[in-house]
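Query form — protein Slit-like protein

QUESTION: What is the three-dimensional structure of this chain?
INPUT:
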Amino acid sequence: MLLIPVYFIYTLFVAFASCAITDCPYKEDIEPCYCRKVAYGLIVVCTNFNSTSSLERAFKRMRNYYVTSVLFHRLNLTDALPNDLFHDTHINQFIVENSTLKFSQPAFTGLDDTLLSLSVGKYSVIKSKDDFTLARLSKLQEFKMKSNNLVNIRSTWLNGKLPNVRTLVFDNNDITEIEEAAFSKLSKLESISMANNELISVNRSMFSKPELTIWRLSI
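ANSWER: The structure tokens for Slit-like protein are given below.
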């Protein structure tokens, strides 16, 4: 079951204020994914299949739809996802659970102007070629990567990619190292949680003016 915080629903309402939310497409058009319409928009769920071509076909049918939330659950895709997978698709929240996704370019390219929240959950692997590289997501406010056996956070992962992110969560990983200035260009950052890791220390130089913006730091 998807639980969306009240503040997030409010943000979605503002985002959709000038946009008509469409009905779900026909079931057969997006199988093996499925769509549900709820009070605050459309929810699309793709679960328990391994076909990249099936996912590509489903999202081609979702172009020009306004989707509140997408869930990828138990997808093990060995082929790289196409560059235009999210082209003309308006998605506000993206959740990945127990899945392996390979992107041929920076992950989640095409969602720069719409994605507000991204959560990469337990036992999920996101790769862009041979490494983890996010696309620039200028609207993103919340990024979570929990229980993914991360051992370090590189300075190239987030800086310059998430200019408006306010909340970061890296709980329940195996993080022992955070590269210098890893969060230094995230000037809007307010809250960061890195609970249940192997960190020994956190340096002030990792952040951008922490005394002015960050009100919650949990390690």
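ADDITIONAL NOTE: The longest strand covers residues 66-75.
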